[in-house]
């Protein structure tokens, strides 16, 4: 019994990816990355600004709470008038200025204002005022 050879099939079965497809996909990914790069940079800058703003707001809030806890003695509230330079976690130097109104004999409230200024840009980041009851 003799076997007759069958027609050989050519193996043109391309199941995988070739070099050209990989290079094209890498170029498309690089173009997308370049398109989103400005958005990423803007997000990082906004995050840094938000961190500094949160620190300044916390400093103002703490000074306001301290002023309200000092009443009803006028001298204690007036002693809060200070200026201090602090550095936030990112290394930005902030100046915290607290001013108080004058204590007079007939005063029943005294104004307290706290502001936080960024020293590198001289921009006021946070500011608040309150009235504190003091005894007559």
Summarize the structure in words.
- The protein is an alpha+beta fold and 136 residues long.
- It has a single domain (19-133), classed as Pantoate--beta-alanine Ligase, Chain: A,domain 2.
- It contains 2 helices and 4 strands, in the order ααββββ.
- The chain has helices at residues 19-70, 74-78, and strands at 82-87, 93-100, 109-118, 123-133.
- Strands 1-2-3-4 form a 4-stranded antiparallel beta sheet.
- A hairpin with an 8-residue loop joins β2 (93-100) and β3.
- 15% of the residues are buried.
- The mean pLDDT is 87.
List the topology elements:
Elements: H1 19-70, H2 74-78, E1 82-87, E2 93-100, E3 109-118, E4 123-133
Antiparallel strand pairs: 1-2, 2-3, 3-4
